[in-house]
Design brief:
Strand order of the largest sheet: 4-1-5-8-6-7
CATH architecture: 3-Layer(aba) Sandwich
Helix content: 40-55%
Strand content: 15-25%
Shape: globular
CATH topology: Aminopeptidase
Order of helices and strands: EEEHEHEEHEEHH
Radius of gyration: 15 Å
Number of domains: 1
Bound molecules: zinc ion
Distance between the termini: 9 Å
CATH class: Alpha Beta
Length: about 180
């Protein structure tokens, strides 16, 4: 089973830049990827838009198994010069998780033609620990690009369709 979730929610918009909200972009991208996968006949579990992070983690924890993929979508914001894609895994990530995260970050960076910041461990994240890494499964948290970077945002807007297809292709290969 694939668990595909949109980072942030209505009461926590996440990164914002010039009226663009991370919480809106994660929902839009999650829905696009989920539609591509369900069109292929794959089952995708998604979070509900009115859940907060704790609810989402609890619902996944009730259902997930070690072979499942848990993929949480996010966007970065920071200094205007900060750019690129990165994928976080747990500090104790296994080979399967590192492999999945590497394929995702390579696919996203090459599709959007943005900087590849690579795979990072959760202790390198701003929160040090990521709750989405705890449910059983292959857990990855994607920071697609920097909404605060003009080039990243332009590439994301231009190649949104190809981005969704690329992520869906990697997830479909890995879940089978
Ligand atoms: Zn986020």
């Amino acid at each position: 089973m694939l668990f595909l979730t949109a980072g942030h929610h209505k009461k926590d918009a996440g990164a914002t830049y010039n009226g663009r909200k991370e919480a809106d972009e994660t929902v839009r991208l999650r829905n696009a990827i989920a539609r591509l996968l369900t069109d292929k006949g794959l089952k995708v579990w998604t979070d509900a838009d009115d859940w907060d992070l704790n609810r989402t983690i609890n619902e996944i924890t009730k259902r997930s198994k070690p072979d499942d993929i848990i993929c949480d979508l996010h966007f970065n914001a920071g200094a205007a010069t900060a750019s690129g894609c990165e994928v976080f895994v747990a500090d104790n990530a296994n080979a399967a998780e590192l492999n999945l995260a590497t394929e995702l970050v390579n696919t996203i960076a090459s599709t959007l033609l943005i900087r590849n910041r690579g795979v990072k461990k959760e202790h390198d994240s701003q929160h040090k620990r990521l709750g989405m890494m705890r449910p059983a499964g292959r857990n990855v948290l994607i920071e697609i690009c920097f909404l605060s970077n003009n080039y990243d945002r332009q590439q994301y807007d231009t190649f949104f369709g190809l981005l969704a297809e690329g992520i869906a292709r990697v997830l479909a290969q890995k879940i089978e």
